[in-house]
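Fold this: Multidrug resistance protein MdtN
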Amino acid sequence: MRKASTTMTSQSPQLDLSQLAVDRSQPKKAAVKVKRSWLTKYVLPLSILIGFLSLFGWSARDSFLPAQSVTITPVVVSRSEVKQEGMPLFQAAGWIEPRPTPVIASALTSGVIQDLLVIEGQRVEQGEPIALLIDADAKLELADAQAQHAMQQAEVQRAEGNLIAAKTNLANPVNLQALLAESEAKLSEVQRELDNLPYAIEASRTRQELAAENVRRKQGAGGAITGRVLREAEAELATASTGVNQLTAREPTLKTQLKSLAEKRNALAVRLQLLTEEKRALADSKASLAVASARADQTRLAVETAKLRLERMTVRAPIEGCVLSIESRPGQRLSGINPHSEQGSSAVVSLYDPAMLQVRVDVRLEDVPQVQIGQPTQIETAAVGTPLAGEVISVTTFADIQKNTLQVKVAVNNPPDVIKPEMLGKVTFLAPPSLAAEDEQGESPLRMFIPQSLVISGEQSTQVWIADLAAGTAQLRTVDIARGTTDGGLVEVVSGLAPTGKLIVAGRESIVQGTRIRVTGEDSTLSGGNNSLNSN
């Protein structure tokens, strides 16, 4: 083997196998440790993980977040012919009448018509007399009311005089002062008499003693004194004794009288201080004056009422215009505004303003969708050679089943004087200005229709629920709706809606603005058909 390898080696062209040898004599170097940054170690993996979870959550949001199940229906789009403004659409017959209604001139009080001052067709000014009622009773009522008012004014003057006297008595109570002074005088007189009573008793006793001594002397004289003289002396003694007894018995009476007069004097002094009666009299006088003044106001109102009734005996025109018809006759009784009257009529004449006329037109039901408020018209009548300009002002709810028509009100612009109510007229309805225009290729404009049942009508705006399929939410959109509906129950949307819009049909009851929705199907039953769309 050695020999063979040597032979092979010698045959190779200078092959140096020493390069393959490993030199183990050198010491082994230590491995270099690389320190990794915290940004690449923690933040970068965590960001990748969060991004992955966010992407997963967004893609699976329908599974985690609740969504309202709804059904949708597309907007019905149609191309229709747009007629040029002013082009005749259709014609209908009607009758001219006052606009908006005739004006009734009524009697404002009950009475019997004496004279009618106007005739049919006569022109009257506002406030001009048109009828006279019998006013004899009204004049008597006015005279009676004026007399009652004069009497009540006298009562007011009497009450004012009593009030002045009451105020004077309260400010200067001379009556009480006089009574108090009289009571004090009587009290002083009794007091003086009581004070002088001891002296009077003493003087009376002295006279009694003198009379007794005179009787004793005369009795001692015996026959020298006549019996008559003795009897006179005894009578004088008896009189003196009686006087003493009277004066002695008067003292308790004087004391009682003195006490009574003192109490009366004190009561009058308190009454003068309080002045209760005078204050009450003043209050009564004020109340009497208030009552009399109120009654005077009542009688004054009665006078004004009687004057007003007398004035209303002349029925006047409430407006400036022409007499349309006579509603009452002379001798007819009118009820006025009395709700308890048995007669229910109070109209005298009916008036109208010649400058305010309209045509009551019977429009065929198939032509009603072409009628719009403000639509121009032309009115033809036999009384005028040229057509009159008009304008649609109202589409009523009065339909005639037999004639299959609906009443439409058309105003007559600047009617001439020859036009009168109840004249026949033929109205030509003209095409109104169109909001749509043909595109560059000359195609008819698009018209959008939606089911009327999906329209939410508010006081200031009209709205519908739209399904935003891109965002998966419900949106409440404000739209402008044209007047009238088609046979299929569709209404035309003028603005606020795209032709590709999707309307929410089922599930609208429990959604609000921005509610997430899930479309479960498409409802085509409410879309109607193209054959039901109005092509005018």
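Helices lie at 2-11, 38-59, 61-64, 136-171, 174-221, 227-274, 276-311. The domain at 88-100+356-430 is CATH 2.40.30.170 (Elongation Factor Tu (Ef-tu); domain 3).
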